[in-house]
Specification:
Length: about 325
């Protein structure tokens, strides 16, 4: 009896070895990048513009949060949390909400894909109407659109080798929601997040992060940002190489000036992080002309499909 069991065990083991030798090596998981749809992403921008103004303390701010959560739920992403906190300064307090969606939460390897969803409170750079509302199609609705469409495609694709944390930061435009138009500008959401990094990563930091801002402009041209090249050179190289293969006209290897954004706090926390941005947006930057017609599905696809490839690198 005993011996038979052992023999049988040996036989099945032998069969398994033969099978393993006969099989080709396991194929690497990949996503079909053609699923990433620029027109869907344009739809996400259009939807957010209906909530303008979307700056902190405005009804459109909460509507944007609700929209993000509803769209994540449509993609079947259930591990969504909100990191709530209060910023106090200049005699007022502001309620802030970072929205964090975790894909494949069981995977110990974590990669952050970030953007900000808060918007400028008014079109302060507009030559005609600097007190008027700021639509913010490119800054900031485009980054949210990019993450939401990426979430949809990822949920319908094989699991990538890394677990992905989609983070929609609040308060990137600073305490006055005026971006760099505020002399005291500094992001609020990402520094708070890194202060509480252990809440989300109790057993080790995420291995890297990529942050998106202003990614829908027609005929987009993405250049590596100077801080990112210093802090995450290998990741920038990989991303730009993949981008050049997918959309050669959208990616230049010429390094641009340093830009502060949510990747700054992530880098300061020791997470190699890089920014993907086309900051050359005159004469529309932070004016009432930052509207949907300045964006294109092709530009969004160039960035989104590159991101998808990047997330499936081994
Ligand atoms: Zn921005």
């Amino acid at each position: 009896m005993r011996l038979t069991v052992k023999l049988q065990h040996f036989r099945s083991l032998a069969v398994a070895v033969v099978l393993a030798l006969a099989l080709p090596p396991a194929a690497r998981a990949e996503a079909d990048v053609s699923l990433w749809d620029g027109s869907r992403a344009m739809g996400h921008i259009e939807a957010q513009l209906r909530f303008t103004p979307r700056s902190m303390d405005m009804p459109g701010h909460q509507k944007t949060i609700d929209y993000i959560k509803a769209e994540l739920a449509k993609s079947g992403i259930t591990a969504v949390t909100t990191q709530n906190f209060v910023y106090r300064g200049n005699g007022k307090s502001l309620a802030l909400f970072n929205v964090i969606a975790r894909l494949n939460p069981e995977n110990p390897r974590r990669v952050i894909v970030a953007t900000h969803y808060d918007s400028i409170v008014r079109a302060y750079r507009d030559p005609k109407n600097p007190q008027g509302p700021m639509p913010g199609a490119n800054n900031s609705a485009s980054g949210v659109a990019l993450l939401l469409e990426t979430a949809r495609v990822l949920s319908a694709s094989p699991k990538p080798p890394v677990g992905i944390d989609l983070i929609f930061f609040d308060g990137e435009e600073g305490p006055k929601s005026l971006g760099a138009g505020d002399p005291d500008w500094h992001p609020l959401g990402s520094p708070h997040f890194v202060e509480h990094l252990k809440d989300y990563y109790p057993s080790g930091k995420p291995e890297r992060a990529v942050d998106f801002d202003m990614v829908c402009k027609k005929d987009i041209l993405l250049m590596p940002e100077a801080f990112s090249v210093k802090t995450a050179p290998a990741e920038v190289k990989k991303f730009w190489e993949l981008g050049a293969a997918i959309a050669p006209k959208a990616f230049s290897t010429k390094i641009t000036y340093p830009i502060s954004d949510d990747h700054t706090a992530l880098n300061e926390a020791g997470i190699p992080s890089f920014l993907v941005i086309d900051f050359e947006y005159e004469p529309y930057f932070n004016t009432s002309e930052d509207t949907l017609d300045k964006c294109s599905a092709e530009s969004l696809e160039a960035v989104g499909r590159t991101l998808l490839r990047y997330l499936y690198l081994p």
